[in-house]
Amino acid sequence: MNTLLALLKRHQAFLVFLLLEVCALVMHFSYDYRVKAGVGLLSRSAEASVEKLVYSFRAYLDLNERSDRLAAENLELRNRLAAMEYARGEREWEADSAGEGHFRFIAGEVVNNSVARAHNFFTVDQGREAGVREGMGVLSYGGVAGVVVASTGHYAAVISVLNRDLRISAKLQRSGYVGTLKWDGESYQRVLLTEIPHHVPVTPGDTVVTSGFSNIFPKGLLIGLVEGVEVRGADFLTLRVRLKADFKRLHLVSIVANTHREELDSIATQMVSEDER
User: Fold this and answer.
1) Within this chain, do residues 75 and 107 fall inside the same structural domain, yes or no?
2) Are strands 103-113 and 252-258 parallel, antiparallel or unpaired?
3) Residue 38: what pLDDT?
4) Contact status, residue 257 vs residue 131, Cβ threshold 8 Å
5) Which domain covers residue 27, as residue numbers?
6) HSE-up of 183 (CA within 13 Å, CB side)?
7) Judging by DSSP bridges, how do beta strands 168-172 and 178-182 pair with one another?
8) Which of 22-27's residues contact partners 24+ apart within 8 Å by CB, and which partners?
9) Separation between Cα atoms, residue 208 and residue 202, nearest integer Å
10) Number of folded domains in the chain?
11) Least confidently predicted of 205-214, 238-247, 266-275
12) Exposed (0-12), middle (13-18) or buried (19+): which is 262, by Cβ within 10 Å?
């Protein structure tokens, strides 16, 4: 105790000066509005910076939830658009109703995927309980990704566009000429569009879309863009097409269900039977 008192006595002049300085600063900040405003601004700026960091951190933690929500909203918009296009084609659309629609879309996630094989497949986490059946088309990143070949209660196997066995009916959007899309096994980013007549004008950057001639995909879905002519035959061209879907980043997908599939298949079967007679 004596030591503390001796220390305070020894530095009493400095302590008195420090006390007076603090009092002066308090009075200065209290009565000078410009200083008060400046200090308040610094305080609020620091508080805003901290809040921004906290908000950014929370936003980062919420990215997965936001991504899922956006995917669900995108799926709903696809369903409504498909319904309106179908109803408009049938001349039944009304301003207060989107109709039932020819196609509907089922959201899913890719749980495994391959791109380096000659015959690639991927698996999605939606199966028969969600209404997924064999023969349904699959979209990713707004582009064609594959076709369902098998399904269980909760999962479905999809033959990828990057599979040499898969053929998809596609057309050049600008000219309307139809060909067959297939993969040559060279790159996960590119495929070939074959059987395009030799006289058709083709320009790099031309859009390639689904033809709608199958029961799998609606017409007009984006597949990719023409990069150039790969082969010039006597009668047909083979075009190199850069895919819209990035198969090394497959994550969220939409499975396309054609609500008229059974009816269309039945008609096709009847036509085949008639030809065989």
Assistant:
1) no
2) antiparallel
3) 53
4) yes
5) 1-90
6) 26
7) antiparallel
8) none
9) 11
10) 2
11) 266-275
12) exposed
